[in-house]
Amino acid sequence: MRPVEIKKGIYWLGAVDWNRRDFHGYSKAHKGTTYNNFLIVDEKVTLIDTVDERFWGTLQCNIAQVLGDRKIDYVVANHLEPDHSGCLAKVVEKYQPEKVYTSPMGQKAMKAHFKYTDWPVEVVPTGTEIKIGARTLSFVETRMLHWPDSMLTYCPEDKIVFTNDAFGQNWATSERWADQVDRYRLEELMANYYANIVLPYSPVVLKTLAAIKEMGLEIDTICPDHGLLFRGDDCNWVMETYQGYAEQKPKNKAVIVYDTMWHSTEKMAEAVAAGLADEGVSVRVMCMKNNHHSDVMAEVFDAAAVVVGSPTHNNGILPLMGDMLTYMKGLRPQNKIGSAVGSFGWSGECVKILTQWLEDMGMEMVEPVKNQYVPDHEVLGKCYEQGKQIAAAIKAKWGF
User: Where would one find the signal peptide in this protein (predicted)?
Assistant: First the structure.
């Protein structure tokens, strides 16, 4: 795909990865992704980030289409993760830039990644400004959004900010702008990306948004390194959306995630769902046999309650639930009500284990239900009442 001039003299050069489905080894990218990087043509030609190494040929072609035989003078590395720095070593070797700018933590990561000895690396802490001709570039470190090296690059003359992974989505499209695509799908993919990548760093998101406001940055274009770009009123919209994400205020919604051996736990989960739904709570019921943990997490993200279920298996829980709970705990969701259900044959540890996981995540617990072997009408009635109790707890906490 050819370069796109997003502002006079500023180009999107990225690559569209139509077939990507596994993202970073832990999350699903059902709609593919893009690797966005940018070229600013001024007295000093400046390349901002690169792309996944598999798209080195695409990057070279796009650079040549814009520059012809003109050289790249400066490279800015906002983030050293390989999908954004995968071509950095090749860029330095081929184009011989005068400077490679990165954050203080970026320098450490760059050295560890590439083992270079003679690159012209210059560290740019927060507040550093460089002139590239008619334009100025200023840098703001955003440590742990979502790596220690992360920073954003701002050009005041063009009111444009390059944000690396912040505000991104995994979506391979022929369109470049958020205002050119379906808004519902955009919001869905933004939330999925946030839930699976940015969520544990929500305090950093709030700090960064506050810093942007305090610094008085005028912004009319936001350029993340994945997915669609934002312009005009969409800049305020996406920042307000991220503010809401980071505050983690839930919807009137519950997610029931479980695995089952002989359908006993499944029956209990569905009875809990019925109790919740009959009290007006929107419910998602997700069996781990049929759902990837990243898709479950996208639903958990904005839920007010999480109910987990598993039978006892070898004095523990089923492996897919162990995977899900490990993944969820690492993402540190906040403001959740929790509960558990489980069936067992003889030892019966499942509910105790599930409850401990949720308590360790700081969830407010509603009494769990467990049952030996197959649940009868009485037990399913208890599960139904459990759902109603969870609904009451949601209403008491959030006023829905």
Answer: none
Q: Would you call 188 a catalytic residue per the annotation?
A: no
Instruction: Kindly state the tokens that stand for 144.
Output: 């742990």
Q: Is 165 a catalytic residue?
A: yes
CATH number of 4-247: 3.60.15.10
Using an 8 Å Cβ cutoff, are 48 and 162 in contact?
A: yes
Sorted by where each begins, the domain ranges of the chain are 4-247, 253-395
Q: Looking at the predicted structure, is the pLDDT value of residue 332 above 90?
A: yes
- 377 catalytic per annotation: no
pLDDT, one tens digit per residue, over 181-211 is 999 999 999 999 999 999 999 999 999 999 9
81, 270, 279, 302: the catalytic one is: 81
Is residue 302 annotated as part of the catalytic site, yes or no?
no
Amino acid type, 316: G
- Give the homologous superfamily in CATH for domain 253-395: Flavodoxin domain (3.40.50.360)
The model's pTM is 0.94
Return the SS3 of 126.
coil
Does the annotation count 83 as an active-site position?
yes
| Marked catalytic residue, from 84, 146, 293, 313 | 146
Cα–Cα–Cα angle for 244, 302, 20, nearest 5°?
A: 95
